[in-house]
Design a protein that fits this description.
The protein is mainly α. The chain contains 5 helices and 2 strands; from the N terminus they run H-H-H-E-E-H-H. The protein is 70% helix and 4% strand. Strand 1 and strand 2 form a beta hairpin. The longest helix is centred in the N-terminal third of the chain and has 19 residues.
């Protein structure tokens, strides 16, 4: 590809991105949406978060982990328990990080 081809591809991708992301801002009035769709869209952020976090916990270099001695498993469990107990995001992050660092630095996992 030449420099012009690359620039044209980048420009085209930028235009498509702007159009698709601003699709709901273009109409002057709110688009009608069924109640079941509104209810389903409430779970989209949680589904996206799970899709990003879950592979980081159970995969190593694209393969499932083969041992229970992985600090990520215990850190995720500790963070989940903290959130269940206290319902605080900051505490969840601190608890999970503390468990992971303790296991990685202390036991070498």
């Amino acid at each position: 590809m030449t420099g012009w081809d690359t620039a044209l591809a980048i420009l085209g991708l930028a235009v498509i991105t702007v159009l698709t992301r601003s699709f709901f801002l273009i109409p002057e009035r709110e688009l009608p949406m069924p109640a079941w769709l509104r209810e389903a869209l409430r779970y989209a952020p949680l589904a996206a978060l799970c899709a990003v976090v879950a592979p980081e916990i159970v995969l190593t270099q694209g393969q499932l982990i083969h041992t229970w001695q992985d600090a990520r498993l215990f850190a995720a469990a500790a963070g989940a328990l903290w959130f269940w107990w206290r319902r605080g995001i900051l505490g969840t992050i601190v608890c999970g990080t503390a468990v992971m660092l303790t296991l990685r630095l202390g036991l070498g996992w």
